[in-house]
TrEMBL record:
Family matches, as SUPFAM superfamilies: Thiolase-like
Enzyme Commission numbers on file: 2.3.1.180
Any Pfam family matching the protein: ACP_syn_III_C
Transmembrane region(s): none
Keywords: Acyltransferase, Transferase
Taxonomic source organism: Mycobacterium pseudokansasii
Domain Beta-ketoacyl-[acyl-carrier-protein] synthase III N-terminal: 115-193
Protein name, UniProt field: 3-oxoacyl-[acyl-carrier-protein] synthase 3
Taxonomy of the source species: Bacteria, Bacillati, Actinomycetota, Actinomycetes, Mycobacteriales
Lipid biosynthesis recorded as keyword: no
GO biological process: fatty acid biosynthetic process; secondary metabolite biosynthetic process
Residue span, Beta-ketoacyl-[acyl-carrier-protein] synthase III C-terminal domain: 245-335
GO MF entries: 3-oxoacyl-[acyl-carrier-protein] synthase activity; beta-ketoacyl-acyl-carrier-protein synthase III activity
Taxonomic superkingdom: Bacteria
Amino acid sequence: MVSQSVSLIDVSSYLPGEPIGADYYAQFAESDDLRDSLMFRAPAFRHHVAPDETAVDMVERATRGLIERHGEEVIETVDVLITHTQAPDVPFYGAGGGIAHRLGMRPSWVLDLHNGGCAAFVLALNLARQLLTSGAGRTALIAIAQNSAGQVFDQPGVRRKAQAAVPGDGAAVGLVTLSDRSPIVGIECRTYGEYAGEMTLAPDPPRKWWQPGTGELCIGFTESKITKVLARGNRQVPEVALAVCDRIGLPANDIDLLVTNQPNRVFLRNWREALELPAERHFDTFDACGNLFGAGIPVNLDRAITTGRVATSAVVVMAGFAHAGDFAGAAAMRWGGRP
């Protein structure tokens, strides 16, 4: 009898270019009402996508680790491809088709997600698990590209703002299969539709993103919005993580490793304190990579595994929230080790 467990059997990641230090932004910094906000305390380093580097390029480079460990045939025979790109190279469609072609895949399902935001990896895991258990195939590839730091946040006008120094670019892929190797034992996804649309673009002078104009696109942060986002994020991520722990019968302080998105140091501290976890059991790369948005969870998971922070049979909980708090998700897996 074929096992119906769904496992995240491996992850692989890619960071573009050389690390960029905080002094890069210091040379451009101007007076900003939000300069002292806890949201925008800069990491020591981050990476930027190259000017001619696409989301497809980033995912292809992130996939190399999987190919080295599992062989090209594992990627070429993927049945389900699920992608998320922070800043689509073309606004009208995602990168799924291009990724499938570049990797030599002919998947039955190609799905581009947008609403998952910084928790897109968890949303994609949930979708992959549902599709594989329903008979849609045996293998899924999840591909996440965060490419807005070196594009949106490095525009000449935007990089003067406090918000510009926090994001970093990177990509990661996860290989999901019908197997018992590293089973996904619980997932919780919650949509908070009342907060949808609260993350806005704020060009000066105001315009639609597609209208011609001189104002550069940036995120419309205000003190009021920041206060609300901090409150929602502090509440939502522990809530979904605790819901998953309750479902699998695991006290939160028995989590072997917590891996989250990483908007800033304040969220990272508050989340582990809410779950009563010591810092060594909450893995992040914030000071090396900055806010990686949706790529944060899989990049951190890859780094944690590669550096020996995840023992075989360890329970790993992945959790995050998106945008201004319109989505949050958590997933737990029991790690079975790399091949």
